[in-house]
Specification:
By secondary structure, the protein is mostly helical. The chain has one domain. Helix 2 packs antiparallel against helix 7.
């Protein structure tokens, strides 16, 4: 029987604060399609959100279980406690939960596959596989410093490009640029998380990007990810879509605030607040980008 405690634990394991990474590409792709004059089929947006969110949750659950198994989530971890680490659920229990959520993501993707065909089928299958392989399998991406690249590709280029293709039937330069912008934003979350855990990750030989770059390098990497979307925005200036560049600048001060705090604060529990701020930052940016595309 599912108790209130168990429900709360599963919600915690899903890591709601990270789910912006599954929302922002859908918002941006929808805004792009609408801004280019395409009629929006909202059922596509809904199922894309459900499928993307499920993949994100499944990835988080696998991460919860595998980081406990490898020792990365030790009792002295600086981030929020994980359900496997705390013994609320067993390793097998959490992995089964991940399998169920990945199955649900496949179910949500079925209508999209019937509509979009083979390209969407391939995107869905590879996305689920990579979600599992993020911290599991023979080559766990996060343990080899490939986690950031995974997020840029699958929560940026692939997610934006896939949804844009479903809504329009085409793929173009604008979709690629927005995919990069959103990919960089979504990666801020994992980059801050890895910088917070840099010392404990070193102990278990988890070679995240932060571990590979070192403390200073990781801070500059986060700064790049926060501000790179504005560099990509120069594309919109080149095609005379001024508002697409100007409107997202409204959230620039928040990005600057996060960057200053990252440089001025030693990695620790305070970084959990910066994770929350970066989630809000990416959400606001995506909505402002979508708004700018409508002008």
């Amino acid at each position: 029987m599912m108790t209130n405690v168990n429900v709360k634990a599963w919600i915690s394991a899903a890591r709601p604060k990270t789910l912006s990474a599954s929302v922002v590409p859908i918002v941006a792709a929808t805004g792009l399609a609408s801004g280019l004059g395409y009629a929006i089929q909202w059922w596509i947006v809904l199922f894309a959100l459900l499928a993307s969110g499920s993949i994100q949750i499944g990835t988080n659950l696998v991460n919860d279980a595998m980081d406990f198994k490898t020792g990365a989530d030790a009792p002295n971890r600086l981030g929020p406690a994980r359900v496997t680490q705390k013994g609320i659920f067993s390793f097998k229990h959490v992995m089964r939960g991940a399998a169920l959520v990945f199955f649900l993501s496949a179910c949500f993707g079925i209508p999209l596959v019937f509509y979009g065909g083979v390209p969407i089928l391939l995107i869905g299958l590879v996305s689920i596989l990579m979600g599992y392989a993020y911290t599991s399998g023979p080559l766990p991406l996060a343990y080899y410093g490939l986690g950031d690249l995974f997020v840029i590709l699958f929560f940026g280029l692939v997610a934006v490009g896939g949804v844009f293709y479903l809504l329009t039937g085409v793929y173009n330069t604008a979709a690629f640029i927005v995919g990069l912008q959103i990919g960089f934003l979504s990666t801020v979350l994992i980059a801050i998380n890895n910088l917070r855990d840099i010392e404990t990750d070193k102990l278990v030989n988890k070679k995240t990007m932060a571990v590979r770059l070192g403390l200073t390098g990781a801070r500059f990497w986060i700064s790049f990810l926060i501000f790179a979307p504005y560099l990509g925005g120069y594309y919109w200036l080149s095609v005379q879509r001024w508002w697409v560049y100007i409107v997202p600048l409204l959230v620039f001060p928040l990005g600057l605030l996060i960057t200053k705090r990252i440089f001025r604060t030693k990695p620790g529990a305070e970084y959990n607040q910066y994770l929350a701020l970066s989630s809000v930052y990416s959400l606001i940016f995506s909505f402002l980008l979508a708004l700018g595309l409508q002008i």
